[in-house]
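Something for you to look into today, if you have time. Could you write out one complete protein record for me, on any chain you like? Leave the record below and I will have a look.
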Amino acid sequence: MHNPNLIPKKHPMNILFGQRPLTKFKDYRKSIKVDLIESEAPDKIMKRLYDFVKATWSEDGRDSERARPGEMVNALQQMLSGKALGLGLETINFTFRISGISRIDTHQIVRQRIGVTFSQQCSGDRFLNHNDILVEESIAQDSEILQSFIVSSLNCKNTYAELNDSQKVSIQAARAILPHNLETFIFMNTNLLTLLFFHQKRIDDGSQTWQINEIAQQMADRVSEIYPELKEVFEKNKTKFKFQKEAGADRNNLFSTSLYIPKFDEFEYHLRDFLYPQTKIEMNYTNTPINPVFYWGTEQITEQKFNKVKVGYSEIDNIVKQNHFSNEEILELNRNKTKELEYEN
């Protein structure tokens, strides 16, 4: 039952009622970033792997204490090549933060369901007024298409804010109007065996988007920086899974999407087998320069003004966190701050 004498609980997210959306349009390809934020020291891993692979014949389970470094490296290579039981590979864990991506990308990533744990930025429990927007090179190469893209994206974000400010529509319902190009992030924890499987599938040129290819490669790069012996394994992975070749060469196969012509001519095909007569790289990597542009609502502003408004709204966010304002009071605070910022140079 409602008890007006209780002190209201604070919300874990910033409440942005009344904040006009800030939007930075940025280069998609340059935004993708994979950080390896958690991994074990290589020497500890090598000892555990050796003990796992030798356990069957071990007398005391302490073989790693007597093994030479070369023997432990050899054990890892035997597991990676499938010549020894690979159970130890499942004990090596990595935690990645994958940022500068869209929810389209996160939905592809979470299709890996075995041997992984995910946690990602939510769209229904926090306000998305100020999320940046990612721009594809293929969109940016045509100024008219790019302008239409910008206008449409801004209209969606501003309608989202209006729905929230109305106090009649929840943020969980308002998000339905948001475009798929908003920037977000996801955490992914996985073991080495699953990572190798994930990379093998997601690095494939014929069945994956360029974004997923980039994410898979960056994951391999981050791991190889710490464990150089794995670099060769990731390189070999690039040639193991060739979905397009297997599916495209079968003239009776109507159960696979064929968007782009093959990167390599490894089988016979007709151009009309594919939706586009270009390769994926040709269609998506146009090398169009994408300079960031900044908007406040539907008005284009300078980066300096963008940052000034951002700071102004952050000041209100901090005030709200320290108090127990009602939604209406927060709305009024932010609207007053917006008017104040409008008249500042």
